[in-house]
Amino acid sequence: MPEPSRDASWPAAFWAVLLLAAALRLGYVLFYPQMPMCPDCQAYDEVGRHLADGRGFVGGFGGDTLFWPQVHQPDAPEIGIGPVYPAFLAAIYRVFGHQFRWVRVAQALIASLALVPLFSLVDRVLGRPAALGTCGLVALYPAFIVYSGFVLTESLSTAMLIATMWTLHRAWTRGTPAWWTFAGAMMALAALLRAEFVVVLGAAVMLTLWRQPTRRTVMALVLVAAAAAVTMAPWTIRNYRLFHRFILVSAHDGDTLWISVKGWREWRFGDPELQNLVRGLSYLEESDALKTAALREIADRPLSFAWTRLKRFPDLWLTGHTGNVAGVTDSFEAYWRRGEYGIVGIKGALLALNVGLIGLGLIGGFRAVTSATLSRPDVLLLATPIVCISIVHFVLFAAPRYQIPMMPFVLAFAAWMGRRTAEGAR
Fold this sequence. Notes:
Blueprint: H1 12-31, H2 39-52, H3 84-96, H4 100-113, H5 115-126, H6 128-140, H7 142-147, H8 154-174, H9 177-193, H10 197-211, H11 215-243, H12 253-262, H13 272-278, H14 283-300, H15 302-312, H16 332-337, H17 341-369, H18 376-395, H19 407-425
Helix pairs in contact: 1-4, 1-6, 2-3, 4-8, 5-6, 5-8, 6-19, 8-9, 9-11, 10-18, 12-14, 14-15, 17-19, 18-19
């Protein structure tokens, strides 16, 4: 089995795959019918528009509550999300106007360019064949193409997570203060984009210390922490000034934990318990109330909570993402009843493809961690997003789109495992 590559060259096959990825994503967002704006899409868009207009981070999630009938407050300070994605939208709106087409084009290009750090990272950890295979799978992976067209964080957060893990790995190998500082800043930006990345990056920091438990590593991590703190400080200070409490990224944890305890797939606004809990409260007060109620229920019935989450956990994995593609959004049953067997076949093929790749990737990840020819810390770094995001969404609400940021790493192990299996067959 080949050792992980240390070759600094960029093969022609990689550039061909990069062009293919860009062509598929741009073709999809420009020429294929896009889905209507989802409720979360509308919330992100509103904050982005307000920021572009100079009104600041207001409206969006922070302007809503779960009390029904809902009264939206467009001037309420946003505290349901971090600032990076609205700032990304605002930058596009300032240049091109309020046009979703350009958001989709930007996301398609960013998603394609993410192959550059992904190739470099996988090349050094799993070898050149696995790196090329990974980029090929990522270029063709349907869900990455589909989510380029959504005004949601998935495309940008996936690219950011790839870039952050690559940056940390470069800090491992280069060991210079500049790289450690850059890694800290990237970690902070990733967390401000998607709060669940705090868990991923915290685990990556612990892995860094386990990899080389020396005084030099401790000093490097102090530098990482300082760079992260400086990067996050403006947002955290803003939160303290507005809400008079420490909020690192967002206050989206209370409602998420509560719906996770209930095991719902969607909010049931008519639920009497929910309405009693949130009546007359602001977004932040509502989050606090729901978190308190959820923690109380978990403490009272921990086994029931564990069973509820176990039943919902397959929702994170068993999907073909076709519910987000115009023309194939209905259920298998609906298409079967209408006799549209071709669409049933398409949905079934995409479901089988996605689940098969996940299965191959998970097996490959286990084999890679136990391989004697690979660097275990490097392999564990690739596995960290998979493990941490899985744990987060075992405890919290699991929806199919939440698997997207970890899928490049799953596909990396799938490519390595596929190559290993092919070599064994020969």
